[in-house]
Structures are given as structure tokens and as C-alpha cells.
Amino acid sequence: MGSDGPPAVTIHVTGFKKFHGVSENPTETIVSNLKEYVMKKGLPKGLILGSCSILETAGQGALSALYQTLQSAISGVDSESSNSGRTIWVHFGVNSGATRFAIEQQAVNEATFRCPDELGWKPQKAPIIPADGGISHTRQTSLPVKEITKALAKMDYEVMTSDDAGRFVCNYVYYHSLQFAEQKGTKSLFVHVPLFLTIDKETQMRFAASLLEILLQDLKENQELTN
User: Fold this and answer.
1) Could you tell me the end-to-end alpha-carbon distance of the chain, in angstroms, rounded to an integer?
2) ∠ at Cα 101 (97, 105), nearest 5°?
């Protein structure tokens, strides 16, 4: 290994716009302000914060925009598996009834929207990717969710692991992102956050920055183990 150390880890982040019942989505605020926040704090060595994108809170109608966002981040990287393996997508979504953060282990191949999305789509028991089979099929993240959660809990964040990302747009986006990650050799993680009324903005910004550092550390440790 050269004196420059291992290549950097690039983390791309998404949040969502408002949707039915949530007029101000905290993830839009978190993701829109994350770059400025971490730059003030100082980015850890070896970490690049890539794109910070705000997605429409919609499923099928926003799918092409989602894939454009995912693809744009790895243009020129997908041909080099060594680089794509150090690319992580972190998707933030809100759970308005939650009292703590949730690190999502998996997504389910089912779209059952309790209300229409922002483009008016309201599927019921529809497979997200029909080629994957039935609506009970799941896709798992390759990131160590339990270890990530433990590390965040040690930093005094109210956080839990979860194996149920719901059946609304959050789960829909995560499922597609996990398939994309599998195809491209990247990694994907979904994190549910509460409303700012439950956990204040400053704490949530700090949480997001801490999560980036933990993901960097995890990838570094895994690289050392495989070298």
C-alpha cells in the first residue's frame, strides 16, 4: 500500500420532499444542509461527501429520476469494481410516528401505499420489481446494520435496528437502491428519522454526520481485514 493510504470512501445522500401528512420533511432539511454542516465540522480523512439529492416522494412516477441520481454518482466508477466498492448510498426518510432513529436492514418487494404518493400513485400489494418474484421477496443491505447501530448508540443517540422499512415510498426507493447496489458493486443503506418535534434539528444533523464517520470506519476496517 502506498504512503497515500487507501482510496477515499464516497458517500452519496438522499432525502425526500414533503408528502401527505408531512408538510415539512426533516430529511429535506438534513440533506440540504449536510455538506455545509460537515465542512464546518471538518470531514474525516478518507471521506468524500458526494451528491446530496432531494427526491420526490413518489414511486413509479419518479423512478427514472431516482435511477438518474443513482447512475450519475457512479459514472466512470462502475467499470472499476475496486472503486465502486467504496461508494455508499445513504437514503434518509422520515417516520412521523418514530421516537428514535432506525437503521433499516432490508426492503421488501411490495408496494402498498396507505395514501397516494405525490404523483397520485397508490399501489396495493404490487411487486416493486416483478422479475424478483412475489411480494414477500426481500433484499438486504451488505452493510453491518447491528454494528452501525451499536456504534451510534455508544455516541448516545436514540437508535435501533429495523427489518421493516414499511411499504410506502421509503421501502420502494430502498428496494430499487439495493438492487442497483448489487448490480454495480456499491452499497446502500436506508435510515428512518423522526420529526424535528421529536428529535431536534441539531441532534439530527449531528447524527447524520456521525453516521458518515461510522460508515467510513467500517469500510476501512473491512478493507484492512481483506488486505
Assistant:
1) 9
2) 105
